[in-house]
Design goal:
This protein is an alpha+beta fold. The strands form 3 sheets. A 5-stranded antiparallel beta sheet has the order 3-2-5-8-7, with no helix packed on it. Strands 4-1-6 form a 3-stranded antiparallel beta sheet, with no helix packed on it. It has a two-stranded antiparallel ribbon with strand order 9-10. It starts with 13 loop residues before the first helix and ends in an 11-residue tail after the last strand.
Length: about 675
């Protein structure tokens, strides 16, 4: 009888026998969900009516019919009556872009104050139908009516609702790949399954966050677009750059938005990057033995918070700046746990430091401490050198040679002296203003204008809205030290004036502030400031947009104090962050909590000193950090076991054994 051992082969799963079975299942599911995506996701189409340029503003109405529905009639709103010229139109021609539901099959338009004949009508889908470079001209009838109106009858709107478009292609590919990876990670075998499982640690948190924040992006596409990014887009169009807004952020914006010619691309990438960064932080908190309920509590908190959602889809510089603050939390949290000082960690932290210092003018206040922290916690000289080269070297290289090559115009004095100007406004409003100081103020702007425009909570009225200061910034050239001296002398004589102003302008940081600015919500379904580029809100989820806009106004302008405090005021997040850090410090008994969350803390301190306006976006890092601090507070205490005087740590300072001490327990475990 043979004594050879018979080794049973491991059972082969269905996924191993049929390697494409899970991919086929994912494809069937995606195709089955496609009609739902087609019906509910996408902006309205536009019925474009072309005619020669004429004086006067047209008015009118439109009636249309959707397949299987009764006819509907609307009075044309202001946005549908904008007269579009240029942008590929023949000279002397203009168009009206009338928004209609995508499922409309025919339309009748009545226009008044249009004394010329209509030359062309087209049906344009924002979802970019496949195979159509431009919308074809449609057949239509027109007739003049007795009251001077023109009536158009368009019997068929083409291409139809079910025509394949670019959005369908993006949905099909991305949804299929994502669902396939999820199925492989759960039930598959092989390389694809291994790839999915390696990323499951952070992807399981990132996916629901991307869906939650992505719903804000789709509802308010292209996002929240204020004057700042619009002026930066103008710089990209003209190829002339100014450092009024950091030039680095202008190029950052261009890198994401310019290839797609849409600011919505920048806000969409921000959704994905924030979800990834938050997922990496939560994965790292899992290594700290933070309970699963606490980590998923952060997902719930961040995913449902309207303040977080609207800031992530905003394309101003504070959003990528907050992203870098979140990345610094992930990197420093790992460094505190592992003492990993390899080249990879140093390079990542260095690039993060450089972005912190370049994305915002006051970002250097956060970049330098983060750089010092890395140099302090890293023991390897090569890692320190790489950190310095990537961090400090990156900042100096961009602000020096790159700015010079791009011919970036320096920031105007209205920006560099903005805090001084606000304090001069407080002086002008004070009854203690001396004649000598009054003459200085008069040299910049008439004293009555100072007093009429000054408000303690914001510097904006002094600089914008046809202000003499904004119209003639050359009056400030070379007078920075002089004006700072005037402010300093007045502060010595009347310190209470500037103290009252400081409490007023920073009130949103530490208390309830009813004048808090959240974003460009205009109450008419648009979250894009007026501009000459044609950017405006084109919702891909119209029902969600209406519901969330109603929620915004119900909890801000028309809401009670407690609803504003709960959903929007950053001061609540600040106190939650401080309490969470105190609980974490009590638990860990280390300086680590202050180091890991230093970006949010220093950002808050900076705005307590430098704040010019009560803007929610300034405290966005605090909103993101608050739930993470409380999650970390649930972790058991960490201590490194040093067995012997030498050899207790491996290369790069990684502890050989890490003990987790919780409630006096002596249990310990290794850390992956």
């Amino acid at each position: 009888m043979s004594v050879e051992a018979r080794v049973a082969a491991p059972p082969v799963s269905g996924g191993a026998r049929h390697p494409w079975r899970l991919a086929a299942i994912a494809l069937v599911a995606v195709v089955g969900l496609w009609p739902l995506f087609k019906y509910h996701v996408g902006p309205d189409n536009e019925l474009r009516v072309r005619f020669p340029v004429t004086p006067g503003a047209p008015t009118g109405s439109v009636s249309f019919q959707r397949e299987g529905h009764a006819p509907q009639q609307w009075t044309l709103e202001e946005a549908s009556l904008w007269q579009h010229v240029g942008d590929g139109l023949p000279p002397g021609m203009q168009e009206l872009h009338i928004a209609l539901p995508r499922r409309a099959v025919q339309a009748d338009v009545t226009l008044r104050n249009v004394p010329v004949r209509i030359t062309q009508v087209s049906w344009v889908s924002r979802r970019e139908p496949v195979g159509l470079r431009e919308a074809p001209a449609l057949a239509f009838d027109q007739q003049a009516e007795g009251d001077g109106a023109v009536r158009l009858h368009v019997p068929a709107l083409w291409p139809g609702f079910w025509a394949l478009d670019a959005a369908d292609a993006v949905y099909g590919v991305s949804a299929w790949l994502l669902l396939w990876l999820v199925l492989e990670a759960g039930w598959g075998r092989g390389r694809v399954a291994a790839f999915g499982r390696r990323r499951a640690g952070w992807a399981k948190y990132a996916l629901p966050l991307a869906l939650a924040w992505g719903s804000w992006w789709a509802a308010f596409f292209p996002g929240l677009v204020s004057f700042d990014p619009l002026s930066q887009w103008q710089q990209l169009v003209q190829g002339r750059f100014s450092n009024w807004h950091p030039a680095f952020h202008t190029w950052w914006l261009g890198a994401f938005a310019w290839p797609f010619q849409s600011l919505g691309a920048a806000s969409g990438f921000q959704v994905l990057l924030f979800a990834t960064a938050m997922g990496k932080v939560l994965e790292e908190l899992g290594h700290w033995k933070v309970p699963a309920w606490a980590r998923w509590g952060v997902v719930l908190w961040a995913g449902l918070s309207p303040a977080v959602g609207v800031n992530i889809i905003a394309v101003w510089k504070d959003t990528p700046f907050t992203l870098m603050c979140l990345v610094s939390v992930s990197l420093l949290l790992r460094m505190e746990r592992t003492r990993d000082a390899g080249a990879g960690s140093a390079l990542r932290l260095g690039l993060c430091v450089a972005c912190l210092g370049l994305l915002r003018h006051n970002g250097i206040l956060l970049a330098v401490p983060a750089l010092v922290t890395g140099l302090w916690r890293m023991r390897d000289r090569r890692a320190r050198g790489l950190l310095l080269a990537a961090g400090l070297g990156g900042i100096l290289f961009v602000r020096g040679p790159v700015h010079a090559l791009a011919k970036v115009a320096p920031a105007p004095p209205t920006l560099t002296q903005v805090l001084t100007l606000h304090r001069l406004g407080a002086m002008a409003a004070s009854p203690d203003l001396s004649e000598e100081d009054a003459r200085v103020l008069e040299s910049l702007m008439p004293l009555p204008a100072w007093r009429a425009r000054y408000v303690c909570h914001a510097v904006g009225p002094l600089l914008f809205d046809h202000s003499p200061l904004g119209a003639a910034p050359e009056r400030l050239e070379g007078r920075g030290l002089e004006l700072a001296g005037v402010v300093a002398r007045f502060a010595l004589r009347h310190p209470g004036v500037f103290l009252d102003q400081a409490l007023c302008v920073t009130r949103y940081v530490w208390a309830y502030e009813p004048k808090l600015y959240v974003g460009p919500f205009n109450g008419q379904g648009n979250t894009v400031d007026p501009n000459a580029f044609g950017f405006r809100t084109r919702s891909w989820l119209p029902r969600a947009q209406r519901a969330r806009e109603e929620f915004f106004f119900a909890t801000t302008v028309g809401g009670a104090t407690w609803t504003r405090m709960l959903f929007w005021q950053p001061s609540l997040s600040l106190y939650l962050l401080l309490a969470g850090l105190l609980a974490t410090w009590t638990r860990q008994r280390r300086v680590a909590p202050l180091l890991v969350f230093q970006a949010a803390l220093l950002n808050t301190v900076g705005w307590l000193v430098l704040s010019p306006n009560p803007d929610l976006r300034f405290l966005f890092p605090t909103l993101v950090a608050a739930p993470l601090a409380w999650a970390w507070a649930c972790a058991p205490r960490l201590r490194a076991a040093r067995e012997g005087d030498a050899g207790a740590e491996g290369d790069g300072g990684l502890p050989e054994r890490t003990h987790w001490v919780d409630a006096g327990s002596a249990a310990s475990s290794g850390v992956a």
